[in-house]
Amino acid sequence: MTAAEQLAALEVEVVGCRACPRLVAWREQVAVEKRAAYRDETYWGRPIPGFGDPAARIAVVGLAPAAHGANRTGRIFTGDRSGDWLFRAMHRAGLANQPTAQHAGDGLRLHDAWVTATVKCAPPANRPTPAERDACAPFLTRELAVLDPVVVVCLGAFGFEAACRHYGVRPRPRFGHGVEVPLDGGPTLLASFHPSQQNTFTGRLTPAMLDAVFERAAYLSAKSSPIP
Fold it and tell me: By the 8 A CB rule, do 65 and 117 touch?
């Protein structure tokens, strides 16, 4: 199968997963109760597959879907403030055709980039348990195996730790914004503070800081391309 076919088959498995009772109950409860601002919308309320270019050399790994973002819209980092920051930065770096992500049919397309989450279901308080993280890990393992990226942009400590576990990085480097870990025979891990409101509202993460990470990712990806 082609990469696109393998990722499509994986998407079917992800969307149908009910392995973690706590996550299943929470994502479905949120989809019924809704947030007042979205009371007239039909929530997705299921696991969220990865999204992007099947030929991507840049994989972006976050924590988990937002309860009223991706859990509502059905597409990762779509319909919430974190996604606003992420896709604006990716657009400025030439990795997205538009800077906005409002809903799954909004025309957003990614070039040379694939965006996914370590845990595929929205967790209560945005905190999956270690058991939930481990139950979901095979999905990320398969995504990264199919993509075989040149660069993995890790959003937040959770995404960074997941990437380090996947690639067997020992000793594990300390997480920090801009930390770069080139792996022998593997991709370069680029760490970034997560574009959550906790970081963007406080100024811990600025647009320039996020731009620097994605500009570096785009540079490394272009550098890996065969010379025509």
Answer: yes
**Strand order in 188-192's β-sheet?**
51-52, 113-117, 58-62, 151-155, 188-192, 180-182
- 76-129 pLDDT per residue, tens: 999 999 999 999 999 999 999 999 999 999 999 999 999 999 999 999 999 999
Q: How far is CA 218 from CA 81, 140, 169, 181, in A?
A: 23, 22, 23, 16
**The domain spanning residue 196 has which CATH number?**
3.40.470.10
Residue 84 falls in which region: left (phi positive, over 0), alpha (psi -120 to 50) or beta: alpha
- Give the domain range for residue 104: 3-224
pTM of the model: 0.96
Cis omega (within 30 of 0) on the bond before 171? Answer: yes
Q: Which two tokens stand for residue 146?
A: 């199919």
For residue 125, the one-letter residue type is A
Residue 57: how many CA atoms within 13 Å on its side-chain side? 16
Backbone angles phi, psi at 62, to 5 degrees: -105, -165
Total domains present in the chain = 1
pLDDT tens by residue, 126-154 = 999 999 999 999 999 999 999 999 999 99
